[in-house]
Amino acid sequence: MASTMMTTSATQIGEHTRGIVGLRLLPFLFVLYIVNYVDRTNLAYAAVGMSRDLGFSDRVFGLGAGIFFISYLALQIPGALLVERWSARRMISATMIAWGSLTVLTALVHTPSQLYVARFVLGAAEAGFFPGVIVYLSHWFIFEDRAKATSNFMGAIPLSAVLGSPLAGWILGRHWLGFPGWRWLFVIEGAPAILLGIVAFFFLTDWPREAVWLVADQRKWLEQKLREETPPCTAAITVWQAMRSPTIVWMATLTFLAYIRPIHIRLLVTAVSRRCQDPVGDEYAVILPLVVVTVPVGSWLARRRAWAIAERANPSTSSEWQILHTTYARGLAGQRHCLSSRLQLSGADYLRLFLARRNKTRQQNERRQE
Questions:
Q1: Between the CA atoms of 192, 198, 203 and 204, what dihedral angle is there, to the nearest 10 degrees?
Q2: pLDDT tens, 198-217?
């Protein structure tokens, strides 16, 4: 009887702790990722104004958009290592302040060379954020909840597109203090990253043992649970050894194929639709209800799908391959709603092109009639 009561009490503490951690961290990280994605793609919205005022060609914008990912890719692993070995709170905060400041400074560019430097440095500043947050989630969420937390965090990607397009359209229509709207776009969208970076320094907590917002029993339960899930025999390997692992290469390839279309097509579609004087935001007003429904439904799927396969592996006793297989299976389940959101936004991209083309055709017909 006593052992049953203790087990029930531990279960209640665990459920309560998991809920508190999720409510404390995920909404804030979700907002940070929205700001991250908005800052990453604002060059496409500013392209028309920069072309008009600075004479930049499509080649300049294409190189400027691409050069961002050179430094972004090169510094992702060092960023994740800093989170693990130094401080997630400090790393995330410093990253956000740095990329917000660089986004604001992009408003000062006048030549293609300045744009290339600004984009390259911005990629370096943003590189550590996403992998750093993924590592940070492993400090707080037990094995069972990790994929769900990651998928909820990544739900910010489609929402950033829904919010970023009309916001950019409104800013580009302003002309304050003698400066064109595209310059204000970088300033206004870069400032929130600086402010949230400062907030993150005080709001985030590196480890459960440091969380004053949890009671002692909750901190003890979470630390013990995470310790139990850590494999007892793990051989130390270098970063280069990990990068040569066939499993890591295969997963990286799948991730590459999943991301290459949304990023580059989004930049292309935005630039083309701008040149056609697209009515900004109309297509996302159509797609917004679908995205709002998809995110919570995907969270439910993350709990329900692929658990039967994933639960077969116990991280404290399983081999490395089993752990990787289990983690990936759960990750696939957790990312299903992100995939469906991306498919919906792919439709929004094509709808945007259609609306832009129709708008341009209507304007041409009106000119002919005049």
A1: 100
A2: 999 999 999 999 999 999 99
Per-residue tokens: 200 = 């993150």
Task: Report pTM.
Answer: 0.75
The range of the structural domain enclosing residue 72 comes to 2-369
CATH number of the domain within which 73 lies: 1.20.1250.20
Region for 177 from its dihedrals, namely left if φ exceeds 0, alpha if ψ lies in -120 to 50, beta otherwise: left
Q: How many domains in the chain?
A: 1
Q: How far apart are CA 70 and CA 86, in angstroms?
A: 24
Q: 3-class DSSP state for residue 111?
A: coil
Q: How far is CA 154 from CA 32, 99, 296, 330, 331, in A?
A: 11, 19, 12, 15, 12
Pair of tokens at residue 229: 């899930």
Tokens of 143: 């094995």
176: three-class secondary structure by DSSP: strand
pLDDT band of 129, cuts 50, 70, 90: very high
Which residue has tokens 């130390």? 236
| CA distance to 61, 117, 195, per residue, from 41 (Å) | 12, 16, 19
C-alpha atoms less than 13 angstroms from C-alpha of 287 in its C-beta half-sphere: 26
HSE value, Cβ hemisphere, 13 Å, CA-based, for 295: 18
